[in-house]
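Box S2. Input/output pair 1.
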Amino acid sequence: MVLSGTRGQHRIAEEPEARLEDARGSHPQSHARRHSLRPDREINVALAWRPREFRRQPDNRGYMRAMRKWAYMGIPHTGGTYSVFHNLRNGLLSHGVELRWVGVGAADASALADGPGNGELQLGIVVAPGESEEPRQGAALVEFFTTARYEGVFVNVLCGRVATNCVRYLEPGMRRILIVHTTSVGAYAAARAIRDHVHATIGVSPRIARDLIARKGFDKAWTVSIPNAIEVERFNVAREKTACDGPTILFLGRMEDNAKGCLLLPKIFERVNRSGVRVRSVVAGDGPDLTELKRRCNSLSNVHFLGPVPYEAVPVVLAEADIYIFPSRYEGFGLSLVEAMASGCVPVASAIRGVTDTIIDDGSTGCLFPIGDWRRAADCIARLACDSVRRQEMSLAAGRSARSRFSVERAAQQYMDVMDMAVGAPRPLKPTLDVTKWNYPKGLRDGWRSCLPRKMKQHLRLMRERLAMQTA
């Protein structure tokens, strides 16, 4: 990781040239971690990936050719942002593209310093890490891209409003591709704010692409859906036999109720217990609602909290579970859902139109329940827990579906198609703005939604999703 610039002084440091050697030496086996769903058992998990850092690679005739360099706005420090960057980077490397992340400002630098270490931290830069004033951050970021010789940049909407807004100030030759990861009103508003300053837009689900075209006026020819990908081979882990104390139900994700619906879990677990089936319930992850979730689960003796799970341990944790519960209220995709399916976990998930219903074939590769309907979710789990034959059939079907549809190789080729189109025949954009007059358009400014109470936001989102299901 390179930190460049200081508060009030935007010195741009060149990124170090990557070594022309296999980088596996920087990730020794000794970095392996131990994780297991069962407290009486430890599994040694070695790092499952080896980042490759080559500025040149041979073409099909054996000649060395320079790699194209693209930036990825955002810091891949934890969770889904880490997985998406890691998988996309590895996929694009085989096409001669080096992807490097770019963060900006004191908040990004602090998040990286406080977050868990991982190999991706070597593969990017934080611009102006000591700067907290947003106009200065924006100026430093524009200056960085003016001198750093990137062919293009992927902008993740809501990765930070400075990074998102920066595309309006980049020089005309810089290719810009917007990635929209969620179906929230705020994400759509932010995407609309920079719509005319990006060459192409990628929605990670069909729902997002359709919504942007129909409701936000995005150009149909330049707006596509490309699902997030997984490294299929990571999930080729031998599955554990169902324990004598019954199937294991797993929730693995961020403990944040507003989007993830994690505070529905106690009700779901309690209803499953009252149905009379023997199960183990495991909750893995961290987040702002973890303390409240633990409090609500105090009376449930068969609920176990695993804590944060490192990236390299996720396949083993999934392989020890039988049923994966996914109670999200809204999502743009659901990467953990696909990972669970690839490992053979049977998913029981909220039916989010154009998102989870495009991942799960209800009744075949998993089960869907109406958003927020914890009773239906519990009943689905109870039926699966009682029927080992059906559970095994769905496990195999889920694994086949995830491995065939969501591979890194498939997604990388789709990204390359969009990148080549943006480079070869770019669509005209609005004129570049003057960075000395830095400002935020509507959609990137704080609006009335930020003032709503949490419960009201949840209620409005639930109404929105139910209406979407009725009009599908």
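Box S3. Input/output pair 2.
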Amino acid sequence: MTNRCSPNALSHVLLSERSVRNLGIISSEVVGLLVELTLKKLEISVALIVPALVIAVALAAATAVSTNLQVKWPGDNPYVFAGTNGVNGTLSVSGTGVATIAPDRAKLSIGLFTEGFTAKEAVDKNAVIFDDILRALEEQGVSRDDITTSWYTIYPIYEYAGSRPVLVSYKVEHQISVVVFEQNLDSLGRKVGRVIDAAVGAGANQMYGMQFTVSDEKVRELKDQALASAVRDAARKAQLMAEALQVTIKGVISISESGGYWPPVPIYRSYTESAGTQVLPQMFEVTASVSVVYAIV
């Protein structure tokens, strides 16, 4: 390919030639030699500059391309981030683990509302009925150590005559937590039903809910099992995705835990006159989640 000089460079050479001729210092042969040398120098400069410009343009185009490739997998699969330089990259996945066990206890939240014209009357009524509730629970095999007060309040009730409030009565609310133990799951459900019936029969008029659970030690064991399962789940997904991408996993860059466990609630509750309260507990479940970033090549 022939490299051409710019018009400015040629003008400079011609001007130099005229200047030398006007001065009358040297001959036309010498002038011609100087012109030829100047043109060769310009050709060499152009030959060096053009490849450099080509390389610079190529580098700029490569820089404009993102250095990370983001691939979204179908369904619930995580995102994959792989470097495009073919040397280093990362693959990010999440894993979930679950551990279950049959609960051996239930925590019930039972309440009693009473009302009176005075605060004392409302309190006295509540105290009498509460004693009846305690005796009824003990008859169902519930220890006093497993019954605790979680809420107790007294407040006035007003009605409005026009814009003026008028005090009409007082209400007392006594809320207790009752823990019921039973090793067998079906037996636990039946016992919980009998405890509810006994409390309501003795005067309880509020039921705030129940929670089936296990000891704190068992919860910690289940958390460890669920966490180990979550890590294995993440490793399985990473291997599957690496094979699909035709890359190799070299190690773990980072790992973090997220999520937690949610204690179960009863699946179903029904109330009948003849059979009493039916409670069907479900398995106690602990879940764990992890996020892992793997190094790939």
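Caption for Box S3: Residues 1-27, 44-87, 267-273 have pLDDT under 50 and may be disordered. The domain at 68-101+218-296 is CATH 3.30.110.170 (Translation Initiation Factor IF3).
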